[in-house]
Write a structure and sequence with these properties.
There is one protein chain. This protein has 267 residues and is an alpha/beta fold. It has eight helices and ten strands. It has helices at 35-45, 89-102, 124-136, 149-158, 179-188, 202-210, 220-223, 228-248; strands at 14-16, 19-21, 25-28, 49-53, 78-82, 108-111, 140-145, 162-165, 194-196, 215-218. The strands form three sheets. A five-stranded parallel β-sheet has the order 5-4-3-10-9. Strands 6-7-8 form a three-stranded parallel β-sheet. A two-stranded antiparallel ribbon has the order 1-2. The chain is globular. It starts with 13 loop residues before the first strand and ends in a 19-residue tail after the last helix.
Length: 267
């Protein structure tokens, strides 16, 4: 007889591209006041994967400017180069190639191809094209996409190692606007699903995890807070609480109340 799969536990690691991580909170490195605040917030979040916008951050391109890798060394963190600011598949692929050169052959990247400068919604057609090109070049692609379950499945089939649907527009802080689409993506995925974009506060992160997401990636919600370091700690706890609640299994929603101490059978 085939062995039954073991139920998930709280201590199960997040597996991305064959590597195990304890933290399910991934953080960005932009929009902080300075590199010291970036470092302190990242530490407070407990993040092990940090995403870096290659077009906006110095990771060695400019030897005369402060280097992000001095405060977030690759020996401690998995650096996740992203293609923020790219509007075509070709630009995104070119940016990933630059990242691989700067990071000595690093293959794990976050792909995002934008379709509109105002909303920062993804251009799905260009994203699919870029994903195919990058996978063909042996990149390990974590992909930012819309919350369309069909598109998410197609990206998985192309070979992306993680699918990252938006909760709401990048930087909006609106929280999850269509939890049913996220749930559909989660239930049909065979690769990790991480909510990316739109988280505003700790409860948004908890909801994402309660839906069964494998993790959450955020930047603005932490960097734009009045106290980024404290918010980073709050997000860490929220992700952990949401994961625990998902594994515990919530009670069903009911139209009417049900007493905690039933009176049936009482004299």
């Amino acid at each position: 007889m085939n062995a039954q799969p073991q139920p998930a536990t709280f201590d199960d690691p997040l597996i991305i591209a064959g590597r195990a991580y304890r933290s399910r909170l991934l953080t960005g490195t932009g929009k902080f006041r300075d590199l010291d605040e970036t470092r302190r917030a990242t530490e407070a979040a407990g993040a092990e994967i940090v995403t870096v916008a290659i077009r906006r951050s110095n990771i060695g391109q400019d030897r005369n400017a402060p280097n992000l890798l001095d405060v977030l060394p690759p020996s401690r963190y998995t650096i996740l180069p992203n293609t923020a600011g790219c509007y075509t598949a070709e630009d995104a692929v070119r940016t990933c190639r630059l990242a691989r050169e700067l990071l000595a052959g690093h293959a794990l990247v976050k792909l995002e191809v934008l379709g509109d400068a105002k909303t920062l919604f993804p251009d799905v057609a260009q994203t699919l094209k870029a994903a195919e090109m990058l996978v063909a070049e042996k990149f390990e692609v974590m992909v930012y996409t819309s919350d369309d379950p069909i598109v998410a499945k197609r990206l998985e089939e192309i070979g992306c190692v993680a699918v990252m649907p938006l909760a709401a527009p990048i930087g909006s802080g609106l929280g999850i606007q269509n939890r049913w689409n996220i749930l559909e993506i989660v239930e049909n995925a065979k690769v990790p699903v991480l909510v990316d974009a739109g988280v505003g506060t700790a409860s948004d992160a908890a909801i994402a995890m309660e839906l069964g997401c494998d993790g959450v990636l955020m930047n603005t919600a932490i960097a734009g807070a009045r106290d980024p370091v404290r918010m980073a700690q709050a997000m860490k706890l929220a992700v952990e609480a949401g994961r625990a609640a998902f594994l515990a299994g919530r009670i069903p929603r009911k139209r009417y109340g049900s007493a905690s101490s039933p009176i049936d059978g009482m004299l």
